[in-house]
Amino acid sequence: MGQAQLAFPNVFRAITLDPGNYDFHFLVFCWIWQAPDSDVEQLANLWAESYLPGLGLEVCEESLIEAFGEHPDRYELFLALSSLEFRRGRPDRAEELFGFCLAPLDDQDQAPTVADVLGKYHSNSGGYDDAEHHADTIKRFLSFTERHLSGRSGLTIIDAACGTGGLAFGLRPHAARLIGVDLSPDMAERAKPHYDTMMVGDMSAAMSGLGHPADVITCSGATYYLRDLAPFLHGAAAAIKPGGMLLFSDFSAPAGSGTMITAGGTRRYCHSPDLVRDLARQAGWSEAGFDIGISYSLPCRFWCFTAP
Description:
By secondary structure, this protein is α/β, with parallel strands linked by helices. 47% of the residues lie in helices and 21% in strands. The protein has 13 helices and ten strands. A seven-stranded mixed β-sheet has the order 4-3-2-5-6-10-9. A hairpin with a 2-residue loop joins strand 9 and strand 10.
């Protein structure tokens, strides 16, 4: 960050001279993305004062939306801006800004095939646990689950799309039986020592055939593969005991937009909160709350639903 910090004044001056230049704004927010939390507020205010002096950060953000909300390369800019607002303690605003990272679906936006997913995780299963954003995602999701499972033990827990088993150590204190499910044989093999039972296959289909053994079902960082959430929600409902709990993460699209897709980065399906609630209700779930968190460095919702 040392050289970057030295360059900051020049970029701020450049924004003052050419406030409509996308590249200057993009560069600043890439730097802010990497800055320590202690520097974020100061750097954001310096950017705002360079861009539209005296009008404040929120007005500057709205101006940036007007200028670049439809820019073909907007994804990274608005993802960085969304991260800024999350770090400033404004998760609702972070989720709103993430909406500008998305695009409508069209006929070309097909869900990844089983072969696509298997190929991806076959190639990176060995180093999957080494990625810092994977470890951070696990930590944040476990913090959410702990608030709902605190004080409970002796549970049967299904960890759907368990990957290499990153959630297992946090779920184990609450579980008498811990069941892992993953589509990838490579990931499942690495996870197997952490679970009492390991199942390889599509998580929705696997859960549909289990009867009703589970007190709790968790699913972190997997629903973005699903253009249609309904099979997952129905599969989970088929596996849950009466009064059981479903805890999962999902990337949100703006209210009323249904399902959208990220306009850059790794392709991810994102579902509007009203759609999630409607599909969950149709599958027999009742909403018990949500948090706005971070998953793979992107804002997401951590949902909690309960069965009757």
